[in-house]
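Hey, resending since the last one bounced:
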Amino acid sequence: MGADDNQAMDTPLLLAGSVALSHWGVLRARGADAAAFLQGQLTSDVAGLATGQVRLAGYCSPKGRLLASFWVWRPAPDEFLLAVDAGVLPAVLKRLSMFVLRAKCKLDDASAEWRLHGLVGATAARRLGDLAVWQWRAEGDATLLRLPDAAGLPRALLASAAPSIDGPGLPLAHWRWLEVRSGIASIEAATVDRFVPQMLNYELLGGVDFQKGCYPGQEIVARSQYRGTLKRRALLFDVDAAAEAGQEIFHSADPGQPAGLVANAAPQPGAAQASSLLAEVKLNALEGGTLHLGTADGPRLQRRELPYTVTLDAAATA
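The structure tokens again:
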């Protein structure tokens, strides 16, 4: 990719407001063994999650591929709430329930009790106050979580029983664009069982703990980290076309096989037929030529800067 493809995106848009997050649900785990059970299933250290902390976590297949991703918080010592894509929640709940066995842990879909709302810009800033990123606090019967900023804008997640909240409305598509711009990919139905966590940069975002004990796929995840076998990373792109999760990406010099896969995508606010997307791509595909959506002669991808540092080790591309 050329130097012009690494330029920052345009100045932040003045997005503000709140929106019901219909594409997210909430899975709940509670009981005396809830912490131990989740510790043995998820990629991050949920047992060490302190009150007030939020953590990214993944749930993998035995082959180390992500079946789901979560924002996890702990409202009580024996209770955990996990925000998850609504399209994968039923299957994940069913699968996790198979492994509870005699553990004192009850799993259920708590989406009706904890409706999720996104707050952006000035609307989020007024509510957040001095709440730090990756932290949460209780507000009566609601919980307010501060997510990492995106496109220079503060973001918050409000979990509440209320179906709607006060404030100016924000289109859901705008929130989803900010999800993409945050650089934190989430697993959707179209991408289940496609990515090892490091392909989505999860170990850079606190979503993988290499010091904890075993969990499904742990050996493969660890091998990818320590044997230098990671040859793919999630990067941020723009494209002058509609895009969606699960679409393949091709390199101009290699039309016969995909060079990557779209993890998440959303239309750019105020732009006709233009999208931003997070895509997992082969690192050696960045060394020359161009990347394209759908086919090797499809719409060209323009690489943008992520809001955190990803080292693209040349040795890994060999």
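Residues 102 and 142 are 32 Å apart (CA to CA).

Sorry for the duplicate.
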